[in-house]
Amino acid sequence: MNIAIISDFNIGGQPTALTRAINKYTKHKARCIIAFDDSFAYDKDIILNSDAAKKEAADWCNQCDFFHFGRGIFNWPGVDFNKLLNKNNCCVKYYGSELRENSEAIKAFHEKTGVAAITGTGWSITGLLPNSYYHLNSFLTAYGDMKWEEIPLCVPYEKGDPLKICAGSAGHPLKGYDVLGETIKELQQEGEDVELNIIQGMSNKEALEKKRESHVTFTSLHSAWGISGVESMYLGHVVMSCLDPWIMTFFPDNPTVIVRKDTLKRQIKNLIGKYDEVRELGTTSRLFAFINFQTRTILKKYLYLFDLIMHRELYLDGFRNPDIIYRDF
Fold first, then answer.
1. Are 122 and 189 in the same domain?
2. What does the H/E/C string look like for 215-258?
């Protein structure tokens, strides 16, 4: 198949990661088309920033068999998806804010067209679009393609070190970065040896290097961890996050230190000075990520889902098997 991976932004590097995995491991051919570049500097394919790029992207789409959109469907000169798309040759992958802010319009679109939607593992997103394929845990990272011994490690938490917690500085207010900042200040005023490292204004590669200087990653007080949390687990971090029951149905034994606004301070305090415990939990996190978020495993999930979307009516009788069993990569 020829596959087009299309998105407004290169969201968490996921569109290019999926494209790269398809081209590396399968006989299919994929191109990634991104409308707007950003400062995270993920690898690139086609950016719609010139007439030549728009023509190249349109030419590719006009010969494609399947289309995977990030967050929404949009046209540009030379391509008309009203003519190219049907419910058996495309899907839309949603992330966070667009569903929380536009769920009714999105729901109406999918009910009208029958186009498949993919949501995530957080019920605060998935629950807004209940007819979606919400079982696909599509966290693709650079580490998912590495051998265990090749994946870099964060600095170990040693006696005399401050507990170093890292976090981003963007995202929805519900994620609680302001609460985290105030909590760290309170702990420092109480004499606790803890530091907060804010990671912002740098490429993803630089951010991952910066993360290695910390021992713990805080992701959110709302819903669950995402790509950032998985990256941190690979590095051997302890990950602190809210987790709703929906994600626990997928990963009931995940090693997350679960926090709420009223327990965040206590949970951080419980880790300070617990050198062996933090290192052991970091190793458990690393193993959890390695087992659950291998690039090839996630790629197989996508390919089987694409096959299901393309032949959904045939599968309903229960007698059809996938045309291709992805066992050889």
1. no
2. CEEEEECCCCCCHHHHHHHHCCCEEEECCCHHHHHHCCCCCCEE
